[in-house]
């Protein structure tokens, strides 16, 4: 029996490494003839840390270098947080597997306040996500939203330093990094719609690499794939990357998929929302339908002004 080598291209942040180690452990669990090697690399998104992400522009800041490594044969797979993965893939690469989803909700994190609703007037909240910003602003126009960049640990350090009264992070990151106690409140999707794909880990590989695809197959989670497919279809139709004020969230009950979506003005002055449901087999077309509903409400005008303000 010859051992098969699987090389994982990964970012170096604690969360990226956790996700790569998770995939390594899963591959080793399902196959006794694989050897898995991690190839940590630095991406453009990791380097440009002093500019608000929304202004950096360019989709896929965190994935490009990993993709080049696979195309050049220096790595076999890349493990991504689905919400950072652009909707389109380069020629020759594809998303092969979507793993089981962690909690998709946003988390309210603070050292002295219990929940979003208890924030005093004028409190400083850290987030650099336009999606989080617009939803918080719509709910609480009195809050002072300030930019917050960096990986999960950097953001927590800035909170602990007293720069903010509270920060908003994906619950999934805190859970995976073994810091669930940091979460004061899981923010209900009714209050704040998560980003498409939030909490899900995806695996990308060369589309013609049958050996790797066979090895990856057991890691797939069908329900997560369907949910994320619907959420991403909406984003794709709105031509939204990850740095836009767009939220989407799919849930499955029996065979029925319920998809909610939102597009908001960055200052929270306008929030468009819609909801569709249908058979799980229709995941992608439900995503398109939802995007159309939002466009009919004027989502294109809001998104256009967001893109223009970035230039
Ligand atoms: N944009 C950064 C990013 N990409 C994925 C996660 C969290 C984990 C996930 O959504 O799977 C985070 C951090 C955050 O938003 O708090």
UniProtKB/TrEMBL annotation:
Name the CDD domains for this protein. Answer: PBP2_EcHMBS_like (cd13646)
Q: What does this protein do?
A: Tetrapolymerization of the monopyrrole PBG into the hydroxymethylbilane pre-uroporphyrinogen in several discrete steps.
- Where does the record place the Porphobilinogen deaminase N-terminal domain? 6-213
**Reactions listed under catalytic activity:** 4 porphobilinogen + H2O = hydroxymethylbilane + 4 NH4(+)
Please share the entry's free-text remark on the cofactor: Binds 1 dipyrromethane group covalently.
Alphabetical list of InterPro entries matching this protein: HemC, Porphobilin_deaminase_cofac_BS, Porphobilin_deaminase_N, Porphobilinogen_deaminase_C, Porphobilinogen_deaminase_C_sf
Spell out the protein name for this chain. Answer: Porphobilinogen deaminase
Q: Where is the Porphobilinogen deaminase C-terminal domain?
A: 226-295
């Amino acid at each position: 029996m010859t051992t098969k080598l699987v090389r994982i291209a990964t970012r170096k942040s604690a969360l990226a490494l956790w996700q790569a180690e998770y995939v390594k452990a899963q591959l080793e669990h399902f196959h006794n003839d694989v050897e898995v090697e991690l190839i940590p690399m630095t991406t453009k998104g990791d380097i440009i840390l002093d500019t608000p992400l929304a202004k950096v522009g360019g989709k896929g800041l965190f994935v490009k270098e990993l993709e080049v490594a696979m195309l050049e044969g220096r790595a076999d797979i890349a493990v991504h947080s689905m919400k950072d993965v652009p909707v389109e893939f380069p020629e020759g690469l594809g998303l092969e597997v979507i793993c089981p989803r962690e909690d998709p909700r946003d988390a309210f994190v603070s050292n002295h306040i219990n929940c979003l609703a208890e924030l005093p007037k004028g409190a400083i909240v850290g987030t650099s996500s336009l999606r989080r910003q617009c939803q918080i602003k719509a709910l609480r126009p009195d809050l002072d939203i300030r930019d917050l960049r960096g990986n999960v640990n950097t953001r927590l350090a800035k909170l602990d330093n007293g720069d903010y009264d509270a920060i908003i992070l994906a619950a999934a990151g805190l859970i995976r990094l073994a810091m669930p106690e940091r979460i004061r409140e899981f923010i209900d999707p009714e209050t704040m719609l998560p980003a498409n794909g939030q909490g899900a880990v995806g695996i990308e590989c060369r589309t013609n690499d049958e050996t790797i695809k066979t090895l990856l197959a057991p890691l797939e989670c069908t329900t997560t794939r369907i949910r994320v497919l619907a959420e991403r279809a909406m984003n794709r139709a709105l031509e939204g990357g990850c740095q836009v004020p767009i939220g989407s969230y799919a849930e499955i009950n029996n065979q029925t998929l319920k998809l909610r979506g939102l597009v908001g003005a960055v200052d929270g002055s306008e929030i468009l929302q819609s909801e569709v449901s249908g058979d799980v087999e229709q995941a992608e077309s439900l995503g398109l339908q939802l995007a159309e509903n939002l466009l009919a409400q004027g989502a294109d005008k809001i998104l256009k002004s967001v893109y223009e303000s970035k230039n």
